[in-house]
Amino acid sequence: VLVTQTPSSLPVSLGDQASISCKSSKSLVHNNGITYLAWFLQKPGQLPQSLIHTVSNRFSGVPDRFSGSGSVSDFTLKISRVEPEDLGVYYCLQYVHYPLTFGAGTKLELK
Amino acid sequence: VQLVESGGGLVQPGKSLKLSCSASGFTFSSYGMHWIRQAPGKGLDWVAYISSSSGTVYADAVKGRFTISRDNAKNTLYLQLNSLKSEDTAIYYCASITTSYWGQGVMVTVSS
Fold this sequence. Notes:
The structure holds 2 protein chains of 2 kinds. Chain A is about 0% helix and about 50% strand. By secondary structure, chain A is mostly beta strands. Chain A is globular. Helix content of chain B is about 0%, strand content about 50%. Chain B has strands spanning about 1-5, 10, 15-25, 35-40, 45-50, 55-60, 65-70, 75-80, 90-95, 100, 105-110. In chain B, the strands form 2 sheets. In chain B, strands 2, 4, 5, 6, 9, 10 and 11 form a 7-stranded mixed sheet that branches. Chain B has a 4-stranded antiparallel sheet with strand order 1-3-8-7, with no helix packed on it. In chain B, strand 9 and strand 10 (about 100) form a beta hairpin.
């Protein structure tokens, strides 16, 4: 399954809203009705951290300025007001079809 | 919760290495686990998965060369890397996607 993530680079100012798109070549809806699309953030020099699972569910401790939406094969991550600690590379991951596939990443950086 | 990888290092092409991931702070035996790698300056690349009942799946690039396994009694995940190639050079992370847990990663460098 091909996962296309755009844009590859997203220059923002602090306080801006940011939006990242993730499109898959196949439906990510499992037979059980659950859609398996996740989002991760990798800050410079750090390991990836999990933000959102199953399209729109934030993991514990993830600020509510992060929101995920979408369905079937078209998904979006929004950051309502970008803060300095949000800068880094964002990845989406489809985990319904094996082999699992990540998007190529979106670098969120300051203008 | 902690996932601590070990076993990385510098190895020649064609040789083998075994990575370990020691888990603590959660019920390791109840969760499927993944190995995910990241080549220098590149994105994330899924490598292998093992279910809680030890069913396994591999990426095409490593199928037949890598083996994922687990020892629930020791709360440890493994990745046996055989016939290593230069393109296997990466940081290898163990992770549980459904619980959000990631290890700190271990570097594997394949070079003569």
